[in-house]
Amino acid sequence: MTDDGTAAAAATSTLGYEQARDELIEVVRRLEAGGTTLEESLALWERGEELAKICRHWLEGARARLDAALARPEGEPGGGPTSDNS
User: Fold this and answer.
1) Which of 53, 30, 25 shows the shortest CA–CA distance to 41?
2) pTM here?
3) pLDDT (tens digit, 9 = 90+) per residue, 23-48?
């Protein structure tokens, strides 16, 4: 039997970048609007931290892929720009 934290982490890790970003925007909107209890605010903050971590993970992965593509020798598929302008 898994605990709720492990199950929630597993479900969260399957979020795509856009889904996590959109949910994070909603969390921030709710926090900025106020009107929540301290407990609700803390839960929203914690969720926001999780979502920010997911977004950061996706962006770091994208950066690594871009860096790898730019590091390939010219003329290699997916490599840097070539001088052939034809």
Assistant:
1) 30
2) 0.69
3) 999 999 999 999 999 999 999 999 99
